[in-house]
Every structure is written in C-alpha cells, then in structure tokens.
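=== How it folds ===
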Amino acid sequence: MSTARSRRDAGFSLFFRKGWVYLAVFPADRTGTQVYPEDVIGKMRVLNMPRVSQGVIRDVIAQASGEPVRIVEWPEGRDLAATITATVSDDEMEASLLVEPPRKGAEKPDLDDVLEVLHREGVVFGIDIEAVKRVVENALYGQRTVIARGLAAVAETGRRIEHKFNTDRGRPYLTMDFGRINLKELNFIENCDEGDLLAVLLPQIAPVDGKTVTGRVVSAERGAPSDQLLGGPNTRLSRDGLRLFARCDGNVRIEAGRIVVEPVVTVKNVDYETGNIRFDGSVTVEGHIADGFVVDATGNVQVAHGVGKATIKAGRHVVLKTGVNGNGEGSITCAGNLFARYVESCHIACGGHAFIEEAIMHSRVSVQGFCILNGRRSEIIGGEIVAGEGAWCKKIGNAYGTPTRIAIGVAPELWFAYHGDVEKREKALEELDETDRKLVQLEGAIRDGAQDPRIAPAYEQLTAEKTRLSEQLSALKQSVKSLRERIHTTRNATFVIEDTAFAGVTILFGRFEFRVPELGLRKTVLKAGDTGITESGYDARNKPEFSFVDPLE
C-alpha cells in the first residue's frame, strides 16, 4: 500500500496484511530528516510485532521506494485485521456485506479482500462491483450493504386481455369500510361509441429462468394458459383475433367472460310522454318516474330523481340517486344490487346486496345478500326485512315502538314462502271454522223439520267446501312443517346495530327469535349461535368484517 504525504520529511508505514508485516519507506527531499532503523523497531515493539534484523530494515530504508515490502511473517496479526462478513438471504436472491474496521496496525481491506470473502461464501452471481467499491473506498464500516442480487425467474405468461374500459366500476362495496357511497358518482353504465376499441389480446411472455447469487438456476414456471378474446353481442373481432371493437353505441360490460355492448336508452322522464319502458338493455332516466309507470330492462336501471308508485325491474343493478316512496304500491326487483338514498313504503326484491344511504321505512324488503345502511341516519323503521347474509344499520325501530321485523341469514324466498303458508293456514282454519258453524246451523234446521227447499243444496255445498278446506289445511300444515325444518341460519350471519335498537323490534335468525326489551339496546352485534342468538358490544375501532361477492360474477 502506498500513502500520499504532504510533509517534506522522510516517513514510513508499518502494517499487517494477510499474515505478514509490511514496511513502506517514503524518501525525503534534501532538507528533510531521514528514517532510522530504530524508529521502525520502536514502532514494531509498540504494536507487538515480531522482531526482525536491522539489516532487513536498512535495506528497505535504503531503497525508500514507497512500496510495501514484506519483512516478517506474523500469523497472529490476523486479530488486527478488519472483519468481513457476507450474508446470503434464505431464498439466495440477495447477499449483503458487513465490514468491521481494522485495529491499529492492520491495513484497511481492499476490493480483493472483499471478493475473496464473497467467493468463499459462494456468492458468484449478480455482484454489484460498484457497491463493493463504495464500501471499501469510503470505509463504510458497521453498515450492512446489499452487494449482490439474484435474477428473478420470469414465469411464462399466456396471452392476456387488456380492457380499454373500466371493468370495476360501480362496486365501492368491495373495498368500502362502510364509509358513505356517493350516489351522485355511482354509475354502472359506461357508454361506448360504434367502432371504439374495447379490448386487446397482449402478446405472450416467454419464460426466463432465474439465478440466485450462489449461481443456482431457478426454473421459470411454464405452460401458462392464454386468455381468449371473446366477443358477445354487438361486438366485432378483428381478423387476426387480437382486437375487439364495438358494433354499436351502448353500454360495454363483461358478461360470463364475454365482452358485450348492450343498447342504452336514455330518457328525460318516464311519464305519459314516453309511456312504460320495456327494453332489452340498460335504461337511464335523467329525471323521475311518474306514479303508475313501469321500467323493465334486462340490464341496469339508473334514475337521477324521484321514484313514486312505479314498478322497476332490472336484470342487473338498480341505482336510485335519490330514493323511492312507493306509497305501498311501488316495487323494485333486480337480479343485482340496489343503491338508493332511501326506501319508503315500497316492495323490494333484490338478488344481490342492498346499499341504502339514509333509511328504510315501512317497506317489505327481500335481499339475497347484505342489507347495508351506511349514511348519516342509517335507520330502519317499520316493515319487514329479510337479509340472506347479514345487515348493518345505526338504528332500528323508533321511540314510539313501531313494529319492525328483520330476519337475518335466511334465504328470502324460503322465508316468505314459510310465512305465506302460515298466513294461508290461518286463513284456511278460519274459513273451516266458519263453514263448520254454518253446517251446524243447517243441521239444526233439518232436525227441527224446516221445509225450506234451499237447505239441502246449501248443506251439500257446505259439506263439499268443508272437504276442500280440510284437504287444503292438511296440505298447508305439511308445507309449513317442511318449510320450517328447512329454515336454517347462514353460518356467520351478523346484524350490526351501531347505535340503538328500540322496543317493538323483532330480530330473527332462522327459527331463533330475539325481541328487543322495553329499555332498548345500545351498540350491539348479534349473531346466530348453535343454540340461540349471541350478543356482543359494537366497537367502532374493531368493526366486524363483511365479505361481499358480486352476485352477477
């Protein structure tokens, strides 16, 4: 090792390196002082280096070349040397270097020293020489530095489809933490124009084997399947099969793995000017739907303003950017999800999830998935709700004890079939009792010898009616029993009440029934257990998690 010096005097450097003591003597100019063997021997003694003859030292001084010269072997000097440690990660894709400084009397490590350690530890690939040089030249002692990286394998990728439209629109519930959904921004309809490029089939990516820092080959995955670019109605595939275009204006979406363009009709209002709308596609109403009118679409239905005593049917989703007040006559049926600000006095049959911002009031609501109220009020007041997977609200019922019933974790069609047959059974029983009463009256008249010619036909008719009602009642009893045995609560079905449940509310999980006590409940989470309904407190810092699945995918 040579050392640059600014002073005019002669000097020397004495150090340990790889088992030997080295001496380098630097010449002085004519006015400078000289180096003497005693100076070198004295320093060697201080550093506990082995003794060496003065003749050897004089020869090095005489040469004064400035180049290090080995003067004596010293294996014990290794304790003074810098410590160089190379660490390889468990997956062998990264190696790091840690250098601890040398003690006094040992030379600083150089590039060759580090490379020797790396080779000894098996690090042979991906070495960053510049990073190693920075550690050595800048004496970055005590700092672990990544100095080698492996080459990650590139798995074979079949042809993949790049969609040129938003495939994940209108589904905030998949990632929401029950924050408010902005209905003004919610949109399931993405319009495209005839000739628009809808999708591209990307080239296949060939597999590339990787290599670890130890030189081990990492085989890339092979045999990946390729996507097929499948066009549905109103689309056109290019001759090479790599690009898909729209054949008409409309709403572009994916259905059963195929890209389709469905026609979209947009109207200002639905009223006497337009009449009822029945459309094979999606419908956007920029205004309102007047009382008594029908919108029936195979796609989505979006309404910007109010809905009253109207009928809406959708093969996909329904978005009401305000809400609906059906006055007991309005109805909404959809195979997908329902989004609305409020629902009042309406019949709802939802095949997906219902996301209502503010309130459900005095309505009959059937939801296959979750019924979520996530606005400022989030109230359920009156009526009957059946939510197949679970429900979430802030308040249910009111201070006036308005009867409110909600069933959780039960298939709605099974629930309504059961209760429908219960009502029919009770009605048939009443009619049978009334028929028996009339028959008793006629039998009394016959015993008393009444001569009215109308008695015999009436008696015969009532007897036939009694037989019919008895058979009907027997069938209904059997049906009720069968349906009741099939009503089971979905595992993990949950009802979250963030604020208050009032008296007058009945909560059912399958055959288990819970009636809210007179004093009400506060901040409650209800679940179905093996033997009944379990209750726990609601903690806003540790909210229950709901897992949503799009019903149309």
User: Anything to note?
Assistant: The two ends are 72 Å apart (CA to CA). Helices lie at 37-46, 54-63, 111-120, 129-137, 412-447, 455-486.
